[in-house]
Amino acid sequence: MDKWSLMTIAVLLGLTVRWTVSLGSYSGAGKPPMYGDYEAQRHWQEVTYNLPINQWYFNTSDNNLQYWGLDYPPLTAYHSLLCACIAKLINPDWIGLHTSRGYESQPHKLFMRATVFIADLLVYIPAVIMYCCYLKETSTKKKVSTALCVLLYPGLILIDHGHFQYNSVSLGFALWGVLFLSNNWDLLGSVAFCLAINYKQMELYHSLPFFCYLLGKCFKRGLTGKGLVLLIKIAVTVVAAFAMCWLPFCTEAEQILQVLRRLFPIDRGLFEDKVANIWCSLSVLIKIKNIISPQTQLKLSFAFTFLSLLPACIKLTLQPSLRGFKFALVSCALSFFLFSFQVHEKSVLLVSLPVCLIINEIPFMATWFLLVSTFSMLPLLLKDGLLLAYIGTTLAFLTVCTASFSIFEKTSAEDLQLKSFSLSIWGYIPWLKPFPKIVKSLFLVSITLMGVLSLSSATLNPPQKLPDLFPILVSVVSCLHFLIFLMYFNIVLLWDSRNSRNQKKTN
Amino acid sequence: MRPATAAFRTVPAGSPLPVCACAVAPQRFCQGGCDMAVAAAGGGSGGWFPALALGVSLLKCLLIPTYHSTDFEVHRNWLAITHNLPVSQWYYEATSEWTLDYPPFFAWFECALSHIAKYFDPEMLVIQNLNYASHATVLFQRLSVILTDTLFIYAVHECCRCVSGKRIGKDLLEKPMFVLAVLLLWNFGLLIVDHIHFQYNGFLFGLMLLSVARLFQERHLEGAALFAVLLHFKHIYIYVAPAYGVYLLRSYCFTENKADGSLKWSSFSFLRITLLGLIVCLVSALSLGPFIVLGQLPQLISRLFPFKRGLCHAYWAPNFWALYNAVDKALAVIGVKYKFLDPEKMQKAAMTGGLVQEFQHTVLPSVTPFATLICTVVSILPSVFCLWFKPQGPRGFLQCLILCALSSFMFGWHVHEKAILLAILPLSLLSVQRAKDAGLYLILTTTGHFSLFPLLFTAPELPIKILLMLLFTVYSFSSLRTLFRKNGPLLNWLEILYLTALVPLEIFCEIVFPLSPWKLKLPFIPLLLTSVYCALGITYAWLKLYVSVLTESATVRQKAE
């Protein structure tokens, strides 16, 4: 079968799963007074359609910021406005100022689901297809398998089409950025990434690798000649792209400052709900939120994030390579997720995206990580009534990954890209010999643990003394996984660059 | 290729379909030991079959929250009836309008299910709880369909073993057995009819495919027993019973042929026919026995064959009668316009008005159940004769089975559009074997599946049906084209044009029409267009298959001579 039929089939499968998930429940369905993210998105349509642009981010009599006030960058707001214009054509009740609050109906759900579906279809899916087609040194079959696995990644599907958000837009733009950079179209790549940041500020998790990679590229060309020209070009492009996005808000400084205050709410605390990051997990033992002042918390989290980012960023700047770039995206996003301030459980998607990009290089570890990342959002998904979709999509993803990459046969140190690392410590740790078997059994243990925890949190009632037992267990287990993954990704990244340098020397 | 073309010279010059005979040689059903095929299935990337089966089962699980039709309530009602009432009242109970109208085995099946159902939600087992559909009920009923499909999966596995695995060295995606597994397991029609619309066709087709596979493996008695059981699960399969009867009689009870391939009367085996008869009687006794003892057989028969329903189902199945009705309607309109007919005398018959199923023909003569029966029998006869006089082993049987299914679909009384699956699924087995059948399969499946679209009319399911249909169609076209790329194009330009026109038809019916002013005046137009347009394609496929079967056997015989 030719490449395009296979690719079409992969895309159609992805789309089918997306739409079936979207038939299910959404966040805050029928739960007044606050509802959930679905109502937030609808409310933003209402606000952006009915209010002048300079009131969008301000608390006014018509815009109560306590009730799902707009707290995403301008592109999200424009997108909401666009959706609102279409909604107006179909049924003006959906976006009536004040009157539409908490509006829910089957046709409206259909409309909202369709907006996500179309956004996904226009931004994210083409990027995935293009990315997989441009993969180097891979057979057609591998390219299609990669595309299928990426498109079936359950986390993104469940959050966007189940819980209800538009992550695929920002992630899609970021993916376009990676795609352009890997084809050496640095300026286009920067523009795409600027769009991503201006759609969701969380994309800043990815900003350091982008910055370091481009900077490293400039260094490589020599900061006095071509490199400088490139640097200036990129800088101008980025500034221009930002200016374009923020143009309507540039009327006065107060506007911009207010938007920034809305985007970075430092008064919201170290973490929210049950996140699988280090702070939430530690607070099982120590109540950090109560012991340390918010200001110190902020500094502490900044320090930790910075330290954990540092090695990857330095490596990338000194030796910018495409492969290193992808791994740095993973490890930086993961560091942000684990250590930074005010992290949502959904932010793990920002780590998952770059992991999806390296699924063809390290299928075993990538699959494992992607499963854990979906599992880490379990409490949220249960709250939204997406248990069935969670089970179905996760198992389907595992099946597809197992069938197309035969992951269980790729657990040797070489397959995990740990060859150079293990060579360098071979003399010190002799027990590494049965490595593949150990890794495989660890994987099975981890999967069983996740399965048991998923089932028990779905069916069992927690003991009365510990009402949050299962969510906390889920986040602690996922957090432990993530810490190990952070170490793993850093090791691969750091040892790889040393290895390639050695190779260059010998060459 | 050379020997095949040499054998070809015997084909008469005027024969319309000579090209594909050479395609038979490399891939045909292996009739005896299937060991090679098993080795091919097991070796190499062996995990593909479980992955395919698991994948589609998970997709079915994702379809649980989709829309379900009144058939859901039908089966819930049957669960309640069989759970609460003694056997003697099963076929008398009429609280709900959806009375039990399947044969006894199916009733026992529901009875067995109901004993699990009580752990999900006992309320669904109360007969008076009409239209009861709690979350647990939906979950239970949907899961029961998904789990009983295991039998279908097993049957598909057995069918794949019957496909010769001579192309071992090739890419997995280009192996006939892989293609067959996908075409059967991921069949669009079965997915939407069972897992969205809601019915239990999966395990029933599983029984049928399993019995076909057993016949291919020369385990005739097992095949016969399976089919007998199937008949007592759902009597619609009686349409293909002639194929079974004649094949078993001709190729199993007669152990030898004469040198020229004709019947050798002396080889008749009384032992074999006794065994067959015993099996059929035993199964029937198990199923009908209790009701005969209770003296309820007439009541049971009247429930199973409700001839009071109209010629066509609420939505016309795309068969001969759809064309007949359309011509009648067209003549009536033309007649009124040019004053041939008196509009006063004509009744405004509601053609597609849901429960109103009586349809008065205005110009052409009205059709009686008896007339349809005659038409069906006449249309089936040639294929059965062909099976008797020119036996070609299980292949010929399968062709006859498909022709029986298609013919009864074309002319039967009150045919449901879902009945087209009865022809599509067995034809999948043939399609991966020969280019000629592959072309036919593409026409029949694409049209037949498209004609199932009106089953799902709710807005949220619209994307699903289109996506699944595209998925299946893209796969079937590209995989079969790859499989037979040496045989040139599978379809001619006219067929391609016809199939492509389904796209604008769908756009018109689902998007343009609801926005147009005709929606209120002529609400039945989309259904009418769909069924008439699909009827053309299905009639064409039926005729083409008939011609190919009848002419092909002539060539094969000549070759033998």
Automatic annotation (TrEMBL), chain B:
GO molecular function: dolichyl pyrophosphate Glc1Man9GlcNAc2 alpha-1,3-glucosyltransferase activity
The protein's annotated pathway: Protein modification; protein glycosylation
Highest rank taxon of the organism: Eukaryota
Keyword Magnesium: no
Gene Ontology biological-process annotations: protein N-linked glycosylation
A GO cellular component annotation in the UniProt record: endoplasmic reticulum membrane
Transmembrane segments: 176-193, 223-249, 269-294, 370-389, 396-415, 466-484, 496-515, 522-543
EC number: 2.4.1.-
Membrane topology annotation: Multi-pass membrane protein
Keyword Chaperone: no
Localization, UniProt: Endoplasmic reticulum membrane
One Pfam family linked to the record: Alg6_Alg8
Keywords annotated in UniProt: Endoplasmic reticulum, Glycosyltransferase, Membrane, Transferase, Transmembrane, Transmembrane helix
UniProt enzyme class: transferase
InterPro entries linked to this entry: Glyco_trans_ALG6/ALG8
Sequence similarity: Belongs to the ALG6/ALG8 glucosyltransferase family.
Protein name: Alpha-1,3-glucosyltransferase
Species of provenance: Alligator mississippiensis (American alligator)
Gene, per the UniProt record: ALG8
